Amino acid sequence: MRPTDPKELKRKKERSGRGATPARPHGRVKVVVLLPVLDKKRGKGAPAAPGREISERSPQARVAEAAGLAAAIDLDVAASGVVAVTTPRPATLFGSGKVEELKGLVRAEDAGLVIVDHPLTPVQQRNLETAWEVKVLDRTGLILEIFSERARTREGRLQVELAHLVYQKSRLVRSWTHLERQRGGFGFLGGPGETQIEADRRIIGERIHVIRKELEQVRRTRGLHRKSRQRVPYPSVALVGYTNAGKSTLFNVLTGASVLAEGTLFATLDPTIRALPLPGGSKAVLSDTVGFISDLPTTLIAAFRATLEEVLQADLIIHVRDIADETSGSQRSDVNTVLLQLGIDVEGEPDRLLEVWNKADLLDAASLQRARNEARRAGAVLVSAAKGSGLDALRGEIERRLNQRRETIEIALKPEEGSLSNWIYENCEVVERNALGEGITSLRIRVAPEKRERLARLAGPARLRLAAE
What is the mean pLDDT of residues 248-254? Predict the structure, then answer.
């Protein structure tokens, strides 16, 4: 699709508003959202925009997502659109003529903020702020602002602060020579003392060190909690997916929890863990995680690694997709990319990943039938978390996937084998228990592969009988 010229932005806004200027809520910051795209006609050998890979999604879908990100923190999107970049400029990204043209748009909209949905270098950000005389945020800065507003727990706030500081440290550019502090040293050996920027960088570095130590303690605590859950022999299931795919809504209906579930980007940042009842009477542990997004800043992936360890340790990963979104295919690729960055090989572990196609209630009849057929071919489960349809099939598939890895075994225990009985209850899932008389108890259990050998050593391999499901 042809990139939108900035002059068309206001015309499109006026057409959508039928010529009337809507009243804007008092106190909200007006923002202009710009998506730079490389001009397909750019000359051979021209450099690609730094940090931006070619996206499968259309520019219009990408700029709509950027506007949605801005709206997620209650910014008033006055105008948004795609801007062609023939050759990225190191100083300003855009050419000088385009910078002036966009300055006119910013003034016409009386905007107090410009969001450039593209990685900006510190120099580019500073120069654009000088040229447009407003605050400028790039994609990373915008996502960090959303995360800052949404984090609720101490862990979440620490993770966001760490990502913010790493980002801010890279933004410190040497531009204020008058901020040099008093000269240090003695006589002609003395040179300029510590500049303000150097002091800021040192202070930020010290705070980063403190936060990382605190997060390491959080990681150890979470690890201890995970070990205690593992002693209660329930398998673990983690929800992942693109932001606003409906993970929290699905989490709530499956577990009976009341996690915040809004139709907005990044409604959930802090992880939540609840018990998940399964059809056969057993249970699993289900965790809801932060939503992914395309071009997720690496600083955020690193900062939220402690939280995302729930995904790394999960027996089953449920990838929730918004099947009603026309960009669902490219969102799937974005999520798989982040999983790969976390060390999870989606292609190499197909049985560990289950796709759930959510929001089936938003499809028309023809699209719904097509989605059903495609889901059967792909081994996915089609559901509507909002309407409650398809959930029984999902629970059944979760149980089937989890039981694929675990053996069902029958064993008879004598009255004096209390320690063995205690180990089984702590490390295996007891499906059924029957008294056989004379104090002998028959147990039907499910055991994970990594605990099968230990059970055989404790009980003796001859006593373990495979049970029919």
Answer: 91
